[in-house]
Every structure is written in structure tokens, then in C-alpha cells.
């Protein structure tokens, strides 16, 4: 059975934490109000007339969620492919650069 590449559901970031969860967060020193950023960002993006509609957050919070491992593999392959061209590196395996190749400026 293969897993879907992405699933569409309401993001946990679009929901205000339950009072008990907020108190638990506050008890360990985490500001629970930081978890309720979705409405502010949604409103800001909604008013941005230069941003295409498909790039804006939906009001209902339903977005695509990708499997982290697969997404990071794609990001790394994409970034390293462009970095290797810049440094004129030719190696068959695009997953990992050889140790003597300059590291990407995007990676600490």
C-alpha cells in the first residue's frame, strides 16, 4: 500500500489552542498566543493585491500537508542541483555532495 504524497486537512495552526492546552503551554513558559497566528496572516495575505489567489491562506485553514521526509528530499535535490551548476560540479548522485565541494550558502 502506498501512502499519498500529500493530504488535505485543517491545519493545527488555524485553530486556537484549547484552554487546557493553552494553560499547559503557559506552564512550561510558552506563550500560547503565538499559536493563533492564522487569522492575522490570512487577513494580511487577503489584502495583498499582488499575491495570486492560489498563494493565499484559506480562511477555513484547510491546506495541503506533505510528508516531511519526501518534501525535504525534494527541497534538497532541487537546491543542490542549482548549487552544483553554480560551482560546476558534475557528480551522478544528486542526493549528497562530495565533501570537497563548497557548501551551499543556504545551508548552515
Quick overview of this protein structure:
The chain has about 110 residues and is of the alpha+beta class. It has 3 helices and 2 strands.
List keywords for this structure.
two-stranded antiparallel ribbon, 9% strand, extended, 108 residues, 2 strands, alpha+beta, 2 domains, single chain
Can you tell me the overall shape? extended
Unreliable spans = none
Count of runs of 4 or more consecutive helical residues: 3
User: Quick one: biggest sheet?
Assistant: 2 strands, antiparallel
Order of helices and strands: EHHEH
> Termini distance?
37 Å
Helix and strand content put the structural class at alpha+beta
Strand content: 5-15%
Overall radius of gyration? 20 Å
Relative helix content: 25-40%
Number of domains: 2
Give the number of DSSP strands. 2
Q: Average pLDDT value?
A: 81
Strand arrangement within the widest β-sheet reads: 1-2
Amino acid at each position: 500500500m502506498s501512502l499519498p504524497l500529500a493530504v488535505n486537512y485543517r491545519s493545527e495552526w488555524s485553530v486556537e489552542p484549547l484552554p487546557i492546552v493553552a494553560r499547559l503551554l503557559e506552564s512550561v513558559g510558552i506563550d500560547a498566543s503565538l499559536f493563533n497566528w492564522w487569522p492575522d496572516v490570512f487577513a494580511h495575505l487577503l489584502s495583498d493585491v499582488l499575491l495570486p489567489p492560489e498563494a493565499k491562506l484559506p480562511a477555513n485553514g484547510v491546506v495541503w500537508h506533505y510528508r516531511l521526509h519526501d518534501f525535504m528530499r525534494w527541497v534538497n535535490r532541487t537546491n543542490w542541483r542549482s548549487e552544483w551548476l553554480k560551482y560546476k560540479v558534475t557528480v551522478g548522485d544528486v542526493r549528497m555532495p562530495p565533501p570537497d565541494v563548497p557548501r551551499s550558502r543556504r545551508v548552515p
